[in-house]
Specification:
With about 150 residues, the chain is of the alpha+beta class. The chain is built from four helices and five strands; from the N terminus they run βααββαββα. A five-stranded antiparallel sheet has the order 1-2-3-5-4, with helices on one face. A hairpin with a 4-residue loop joins strand 4 (about 115-120) and strand 5. Residues about 140-149 have low confidence and may be disordered.
Length: about 150
Amino acid sequence: MNVEIQPALLRERFYPRSRQSVASAREFARMTLHAWGVTPRHDDVLLCVSELATNALLHGVPPGRGYRLRMLRFEGGVRVEVHDSGGGRPRIEGRDTGAEGGRGLLLVAAVADRWGVGMRVPGKVVWCEFATDTGPTLDPTAVEARRGD
């Protein structure tokens, strides 16, 4: 009997509240994309992982807590989710063009095909999606509904 083994359609990892975790999250995302055979949009996905992880650290992760990076592979795309337990709802606002920071979500909105924020208890999920190529079938909304987030 021949059985074809498909790569995992969902991968996730928890990270502590530490600036070093952004590089670890990016590396986890890079390895996941490689395992899934996703080459289109590779750099876009990694940029958005960095931005969402950094935003979680700066604005969403209370002291003593961490954040979860979840990646989902579905037919024709990849979804990246960053879960944190902090309050507030991320939004893009007019930024001072001379300011050093404050452009993370602008980058995500410019690079990703879709992005958004979902509330959970406690905290929120900031997500983005990328059309890539044909891949294993998974409806990310079905996973979200199953989780109850």
